Amino acid sequence: MKILKLGLIILLLLSAFAVRAQKVITEGTLVYNISIQTGSSEPKMADMLDGATTTIYIKGNQSRSELISGLGSEVTIYDSKKGSGVILKDYSGQKLMITLTKDDWDKKNSKYEGITFEPTNETLTILGYNCKKAIARLIDGSSFVVYYTPELEVADKNYDSQFKNLPGLALQYEWQSGKMRFKYTLSKINFENVSASKFDIPKSGYRVMTYAETKK
To answer: What is the pTM of this model?
Structure first.
């Protein structure tokens, strides 16, 4: 009888762990802090960008990503069901809206097609979640480091193309652009409902351009 009770307790503990391990986010907010390392010739750019944040709002098939820095703001609103979205840029008082069709969105994120994640034995704890380190490899030969937890996963994997194939949620990752290295670290996660108004597209106040026009 004691063995049966012990087995039941172990089963319940394992079940509780499994529930946490398989938590799927259908709605919520993710806040990432951004830190930057640069070469000695770019300290002013680092000062303007260091301390920036990216906030991601998720609601079903809709997502909104807000990058806020000392330079200004950039917002991307995307509907994975329609496959279309907009980018809202506000720098130095200049406000630009870039519209993207499904084809535009696919072209914009084409560099992440075929991305793979090579697991390592390194781990890290972030916000109480156990994270595994992986090396992300792109088809162009570049790579970056990501720490992810399999305990969390966003239901709509299209919210961020670079992590579409990642078996969990990225809590920390970094990539390099020239001599600048950007590190994103999750600082806050909220599972509460997100207002539908977050995904409303402005009707005025922006100069509107298509994605194709910005490439000319």
So the answer is: 0.86
